[in-house]
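Subject: hydroxymethylglutaryl-CoA lyase

B.,
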Amino acid sequence: MSFPEKVKIVEVGARDGLQNEPQVSTQAKIDLINGLSQSGLKHIEAGSFVSPKWVPQMADSHQVLRSITRFPGVAYSALTPNLQGFLHAIDANVDYIAIFASASETFSQKNINCTIEQSLERFEPVVSAAQKKGIPVRGYLSCVIDCPYEGKIAPQQVRNIAKLLSSLGCYEISLGDTVGTGTPVRIQQMLEAVNHDIALEQIAVHFHNTWGQALANLFHALSMGVSVIDSSVAGLGGCPYAPGASGNVATEDVVYLCHELGIETGVDLTSLTQVGWSITQHLNRTPSSNVALAIGKQ
Ligand code: HMG
Ligand code: MG
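Prediction pasted inline below.
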């Protein structure tokens, strides 16, 4: 079995993780992001410039991005659904942005209040404004396995929308198993479909762990050559518009698995684990990461 020599981890805990938490202080977010930077993570999604009416939990993203310590070599990003969000993100000095579409029509309506086609039209000026400023654009695609409203999504549909996002100018497409129902063979079929048009190096996997399959799916994706992984410290998270979906695969579990497979991550597992314990203590719970529980709080 072969695996990539190293992986890029995109830490989404401060965004995907905390967008679902009603009460997290701005200072706790800043401390979290600084801790993540110190643990060796190089790609940190720090917030989201969406409508505060839709996701009030992310309303302080500007302040968060303006207040964190910028560690050299670390790129800080945010979600931007439209030009308004893009302008706020630029003002907050993001290094790159992410637009987010869905492979499911119903999820698109529920999450961003428009059809898939309208969303792609809306992203066009965002991408061209970003390109003018030399800001790279990442593309998320949600519901690549199942939709919380429509059920199964065909791999061909995922392929089609991923291709459209890529031709808009996204340097990387993050494929989201939003509800976390995926299992390895379905993940493989979906990745193979997308890989017809998009090189493996440009594909990221974004697995939520609702059904406990994220690490198995990740292992399979790694064995297929995928080398960009989205994960969330302490397994924080969920999407407010995917009811019941739990957090992303925990970064601690990803780092442990990769190191055991001989894959470089650049992350210090001990330091990362303590960052996970700190934020979950703030949330009055323990990390949703078996590795963090096994290591314990120091
Ligand atoms: P809308 O209501 O159709 O937008 O929402 P609108 O353009 O009609 O504007 C309505 C109001 O929102 C206006 O304010 C705008 O100014 C304001 P009003 O005049 O009523 O006072 N507004 C904004 N304010 C601040 N920043 C903005 C912004 N845009 C409009 N950027 C919209 C459309 C897309 C804005 C809305 O649906 C929205 O914000 N949705 C975001 C939902 C969200 O954040 N979901 C979670 C992230 S996605 C996710 O978690 C999945 C992912 O992890 C991958 C996976 O797991 O699958 C990425
Ligand atoms: Mg997500």
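Residues 116-132 form the longest helix (17 residues).

T.
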